[in-house]
Design goal:
The chain is of the alpha/beta class. 43% of the residues lie in helices and 16% in strands. Helix 3 links the parallel strand 3 and strand 4. The two termini are 26 Å apart. Belongs to the LOG family. Keywords: Cytokinin biosynthesis, Hydrolase. InterPro entries: LOG, LOG_fam. This is Cytokinin riboside 5'-monophosphate phosphoribohydrolase.
């Protein structure tokens, strides 16, 4: 993996460990020579992961919609800042640039980004590993919900298992490096889209 996209909150949240782990993930990516692709902001966990990468000598690429740049949240120390017109274009660009995805704690935006990438994988539009760094059990309830989706017949088990989860950065990166996408598709294939 050469580049990983990280989705995370634009605030720090209430638990200091979120910021600590975001910074550590950034440092770990840099040490493993994996470039960061993220939302381009200098605030919250987004800023922490970018600073972690940059301070450890790594490369950080931000993808930021123009309307957010005008709010002066763009990180000015990035290796590269790519400006786009919309949130949808942002996600598409971030997907195009990366070899895998990690979600850290965040709010609605983080969940929306994570689930769009999972949906694209389920539909066979990409075969990239998608992971959650489950810091302090932040995503426990969400993981349980995905199990309920399987139990209730609304999600295939093989698709639920596409979501890689760990509370340990090294373990999560190892899972991602060894990921093999399921061969079972949904009901369409990429050539027909």
């Amino acid at each position: 993996m050469k580049r990983i996209t990280v989705f995370c909150g634009s605030s720090f949240g209430t638990d200091e460990i979120y910021k600590e782990q975001a910074t550590l993930l950034g440092q770990t990516l840099a040490k493993q020579n994996i470039e960061l692709v993220y939302g381009g902001a200098n605030v919250g966990l987004m800023g922490a992961i970018a600073d972690g990468v940059l301070n450890a000598g790594g490369k950080a690429i931000g993808v930021l919609p123009n309307f957010l740049r005008s709010k002066e949240i763009a990180h000015l120390g990035l290796t590269e800042l790519i400006l786009v017109e919309s949130m949808h274009e942002r996600k598409t660009k971030m997907n195009d640039l990366c070899d895998g995805v990690i979600a850290l704690p965040g709010g609605f935006g983080t969940l929306e980004e994570l689930f769009e990438m999972l949906t694209w994988a389920q539909l066979g539009l990409h075969k990239k590993p998608i992971a959650i760094l489950n810091i302090n059990g932040f995503y426990d309830a969400l993981i349980e919900l995905t199990k309920v989706m399987v139990e209730k017949g609304l999600l295939k088990d093989v698709n639920q298992q596409m979501l890689l989860v760990s509370d340990n950065i090294d373990d999560l990166l190892d899972q991602m490096k060894n990921y093999v996408a399921p061969t079972v598709g949904k009901w369409i294939d990429k050539e027909k889209v």
